[in-house]
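Illustration 12: L,D-transpeptidase.
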Amino acid sequence: MSRSSSGFVAALTAAAMAAVGFLAYQASANAPEDLGREPAAKSPGASGPESPAKPKPDQLPAHSGTGERVVYSLRADRVWLVGEDNRAQTSYRVTPSSVDPLPGSYRVTSRSESVVGSDGVPIEHVVRFAVTDGVVIGFSAAVDGSTPKPDPDKRTGGIRQSRSDANVMWKFAGEGGKVVVVR
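Figure caption equivalent — predicted structure in token form:
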């Protein structure tokens, strides 16, 4: 290859790379936030473009859908129960499980009034909505009212709530109800 043709190929390659980079930037700017991305490890105190601020308790997260739905923020460890008018009826903190659901939109697949959780704890008002890596994910309350942090060595999917919050979720999220998970 001559010196001038190798320079031409290098310039053409650089132009193609710039075009691909621009298109990727445009696509990311127009994509819904966090949907379909793998969960990232949570790092305490992280900030900057890779870790936007946690939503305020009364502020529904951006890109969390429309209509009646449960919104679960992985980053904030918080749930919002949203009515048809797109306004949060209530919001509260939860204790996440050791396995997070992927961000996206789901439907409540099943409910149980009272069972034993995957961690061996008696639970109530179970609202299941996802399966991640073979682990069933759902909201629940421990009958004894505890909300301990999950054992990181056990793969569990129970997102724990207080008993009173679980009662509100139980009344709100029937089978087929929408659940939106955001970062």
